[in-house]
Amino acid sequence: MEISELLPIVAAIASFAVAAGFAAWVSKQNPGTKEMLEISNAVKEGASAFLKREMKIIIPVAIGLAVIIGFFIGSSNGIAFAVGAALSAVAGIISLKITVKAAVRAANSTDSGLGKTFALAFRGGATVGLTIPAMALVAMAVLYMVYPDPITIAGVGIGASLIALFIRIGGGIFTKAADMAADLVGKVEANIPEDDPRNPATIADNVGDNVGDAAGMGSDVYESYIVTMLASLLIAALIGFPEIVLYPILVGASGIIASIIGAATITSRNVTDVMKPLNVSFYVSAAIAIVLNFVFAYLFLGLSDLTYALFGTTVVGVILVPVIQKITDSFTNSKSKPVKEIAESAKWGYASLTLMGIIHGMRSTGPFMIALVVAIIVSFSLASSFAPDPSQALLYGIFGTSLTAMSMLSLAGIVLSIDAFGPIADNAGGIVEMTGMGEENRKITDQIDAVGNTTKAITKGFAIASAGLAALAMIQAFQYEAAEFFHTAFDYSLTNPAVIVGLLVGSLIPFIITGQLISGVSRAAFTLIDEIRGQFKRDPGILTGKSKPDYAKCVDIATVASIKELWKTASIAVAAPIVLGILLGPPAVAGLLLGAVVTGIFLAYHMVNTGGAWDNAKKLIEMKGEKGTEEHKVAIVGDIIGDPYKDTAGPALNTVIKLLSTVSIVFVSVFVAIIAL
């Protein structure tokens, strides 16, 4: 084994070791009182029950698809699919277990002040952040070493994307149905605080934070990492220059190393602004990643104009992360002008707040689009301008764009660490409220939770941007693979009706899926609302505190309702490119992929920012001490509307985009076989 092949594995092992150290430290902290442990165990049991039910569906489907892909397309793709699917599920499970354990300890640490609480939340998040990208890196490095032709392992992308989509959809519907029902009946109708133990949906809401925001995001980031690296490897293989094929994997290794160092720089001493140490850790990671990307390029590619060009594309990707972070932060942070305006608009009622949130969410797509366009132009121009063979300038340009996406995802370790502390803080706040620890303790968790809302939005923006860049590279890879399988060059111009049909169908898919998911959340929420109202009516002692609500019933309802919705979105994402490819050929599929990317990334970004802004507008009003006012009730409704936006539909779309692309590439040979018949 050469050092270039060994380096990613060593980096991943180091990341696992540091994550294990963080996990051990978190485990050693005091989990708190018996009452706190009872609540934590109830959340843990509810989350585990949800995942077990979901896995009963996912595992047979995954096994069946692995066999089908292995038989019809190739054993290597079947094995790769199984690896991608299995590790996607593991990513979700790891995220779930760590966040539950860290949350109760963070709640107990609020007696020690903001610094200790922040340290627990971050180190719990860093355990997830340093484990999952390292796991994805090892998977791709080993698969590539065993099967050096990337097209033979493209099934890993389908496996990762499909399972991530299942977990994202199931968890997203669960968490937002429970959250919406708990807020609407509890806060608005019954006028009781958030996470009040008298609310029957409180435990379900806390379970949802873990299965949606933790397990869902863990699987999502793992899948994004896998698909983005796959896109780079596919394009590099088409170029046929052996030395550059390993560079995307080395970029992944540099990001892992940089994330380890960045996470280690976090200090909780004298913390007053939680966002400041998080920003410092990210910028440290980014700087180190840039240096290592150059070192690896120099060592393994040699010193040439092409080396500098490819390195330049990775710098673009690293820079793009804080740019998107800044854009997202400026529209979702509780201190930002848009959020203040949304909070202020609550004075004029529900319609005003709703419209103001939608306006700012739509506006956020403008700078986001500009950032992506600039990144694409710069990375493509750099790589294509210095192509050794001018006839391959297009391929090199596409490879440069894929490297930009890969360098973004290489920082997933620190980005996910910053994201994962959000649901930990949210759950910690719930435990503080349910155990009656006091207003000062709740202020600490609210402060961290407000930052967590922003970091969660940032991570979603990060995932959406990388999905768009990776999908664009995958579209080009699909076109080249189709030409090879069909032994012909297709017409992908807008004068081809098949391309136009594909564009229209692809552009429609994100809207159809968004409607399905929000509808699914609403149906599940209405069922829970009926149950909560029913419990209050049947037992008036619940609201007086004399009786205990039936938490388990609400958890069960949310679980059943969310699992019912799994199939619709996944079926569309898998079937659409296959059916269109068989009926109209590769040009229609290419059009479909492009249409889905263009509408999907902007719709997704609009939704996650709109939802995040509504959430923090509510938080801003609460932090001003205005809980229970009419403005607060209006803001709660805005938050309720935003829940399925930011935590269900928006995040699911970036997974859908990548699943469409990987399905298209893997099944292009099927188009040939069926059309030949």
Estimate the strand proportion.
Answer: under 5%
List the domain count as a whole number.
Answer: 1
Shape: globular
Low-confidence stretches: none
Whole-number mean pLDDT: 86
Question: Secondary-structure element order, as H and E?
Answer: HHHHHHHHHHHHHHHHHHHHHH
Determine Rg (CA atoms, Å).
24 Å
Structural class: mainly alpha
Distance between the termini: 44 Å
Q: Care to count the β-strands?
A: 0
- Count helical runs: 22
Helicity range of the residues?
A: over 70%
Largest sheet report: none
What can you see in these coordinates?
With 677 residues, the protein is an all-alpha fold. It has one domain. Helices cover 86% and strands 0% of the residues. It contains 22 helices and no strands. It has helices spanning 3-28, 34-72, 75-108, 114-146, 155-189, 202-239, 242-245, 247-264, 275-301, 305-332, 337-345, 350-385, 393-410, 412-434, 439-486, 497-538, 541-544, 551-564, 566-584, 586-623, 630-666, 668-676. The chain is globular. The two termini are 44 Å apart. 65% of the residues are buried. The model has no long low-confidence stretch (mean pLDDT 86).
